[in-house]
Specification:
Layout: H1 4-30, H2 34-58, H3 66-79, H4 81-90, H5 93-101, H6 109-124, H7 130-133, H8 135-160, H9 163-192, H10 197-221, H11 225-250, H12 255-283
Helix pairs in contact: 1-2, 1-3, 2-6, 3-4, 4-11, 8-9, 8-10, 8-11, 8-12, 9-10, 10-11, 11-12
Length: 288
């Protein structure tokens, strides 16, 4: 017989194992790579074995967390298999602590722990996904759009003070810069030969244009140029937060340092451009 507390931990471990079994099965169904699918199916079978192992001590069946299965399936479909897998593996630290507390239960617990650690290493070596491969191109587009366009919008806001005019000028500037950046990435990728030049330039251009649309949108909504600028800055910080989180998980980077760096550069350039706009408006006598 096991204690009430230990039984609760065993049931928790069962739920975790059967949930991960369904997650890996689902993820296997969305990958087109036969090798990746084989590894995911093999790991899911291992999770099912672990579930059956814990069931020996509880004598109960436990249902998986359907919400968690749906979440990781959604993330894999829209943000990539790499991100979904690594986010899940990063969250298994608590499970490892739980397993450590069960070591005294049975000698077989050691094998379960070893299997889980082996899964993590196998998964980290598993993925060579296009989304991750071209993440650098997306970062290039995002970084340049955030720094260049946010800076330009800050300058335009103080110099022009007309939301519709700022929006039009900013849109023209952003689209021209996006095409220029995409062209530069095409030439750079072609010279290095590490990525498909057309795909790399497309990822860069789309990331740039997507950022342009988000930053310009407030100027079509707000009547006050300063309110629009405040919204654009807020959106920029949100974009930086979301993309930095994605890259930090998918590429094992330190989130905090990268986030602070990108925010500091973007807002620093915006503040400097705002001052430049003030000088331009004053000394060129612009009154619109």
């Amino acid at each position: 017989m096991v204690s009430k507390e230990l039984r609760a931990r065993l049931l928790e471990s069962q739920r975790s194992e059967i949930t991960e079994y369904h997650i890996y099965r689902k993820l296997a169904s969305v990958t087109g790579d036969p090798g990746n699918r084989n590894v995911l199916e093999r790991i899911s079978d291992g999770e099912k074995d672990h579930y059956e192992y814990w069931k020996r001590f509880t004598g109960e069946d436990v249902a998986p967390s359907r919400m968690k299965v749906a979440l990781y399936y959604f993330l894999a479909r829209f943000l990539g298999l790499s991100f979904s897998l690594k986010l899940m593996e990063n969250g298994e630290g608590a499970a490892q602590v739980s397993y450590d507390r069960l070591r005294s239960l049975d000698a077989g617990v050691e094998k379960v722990i070893a299997d889980e650690e082996g899964h993590e290493k196998e998964l980290l070596a598993l993925i060579d996904e296009e989304k991750l491969k071209y993440a650098g191109s997306m970062v290039l587009g995002l970084n340049d759009a955030l720094v260049e366009l946010l800076g330009a919008l800050s300058g335009f806001t103080l110099a022009l003070r007309n939301t519709r005019l700022i929006a039009v000028v900013g849109l023209i500037t952003g689209i021209a810069a996006a095409m220029s950046m995409a062209g530069s990435e095409y030439l750079s990728s072609k010279e290095k030969g590490e990525k498909n030049p057309l795909k790399a330039s497309t990822y860069t251009g789309l990331a740039y244009i997507g950022t342009v649309i988000v930053l310009i949108a407030p100027y079509f909504v707000f009547g006050s140029p300063f309110a629009a600028l405040g919204a654009a800055v807020t959106f920029a910080v949100i974009i930086i937060f979301m993309f930095t989180f994605y890259i930090s998980v998918a590429k094992d980077m330190v989130f905090g340092a990268k986030f602070r760096e990108m925010v500091s550069i973007s807002l620093g350039v915006a503040a400097l451009s705002f001052l430049i706009g003030m000088v331009v408006r004053k000394y060129f006598n612009i009154d619109i």
